[in-house]
Amino acid sequence: MIVTSQADCAWRPKKALGYSGLLLLAACASTPPIPTYNLQAAQQAISTAERDEAARYAPGELSEAHSKLAAANTAITGRKMIVAEHFADQSRAEAELASARTSAAKANAVNDEMKSSNGTLVDEMKRGSGDPL
Questions:
Q1: Residue 96: is its pLDDT beyond 80?
Q2: Fold of 30-106
Q3: Cα gap 91→121, rounded to integer Å
Q4: Do residues 55 and 104 make contact, with C-beta atoms less than 8 angstroms apart?
């Protein structure tokens, strides 16, 4: 036979209330906040890529950046903040890749134009000096 004192019975409701409070606090604390910084960084990177004409030079990467940002927003709606953070980071990386590919394509175009101009100048110099082509 189990014997309990009145003091033990008086502590039971307090313990139950304390444990309930801890569970409630743990449940509230386990939901991470919205990854606002990551979303803003992704949006800024996309805006920069669009301004750099990535739609012309790196459309695949820019499209992927938009898709990942949309997935991040969907994850937020589903209260999956860690997933949203990862999608936002991936979106930013895709947008930065689009910007880098755009810069490289533009630099290559300038380089090709300079090569062509140099070839034209060499031809003109040969003509002016009387050297046969």
A1: yes
A2: Substrate Binding Domain Of Dnak; Chain:A; Domain 2 (1.20.1270)
A3: 45
A4: no
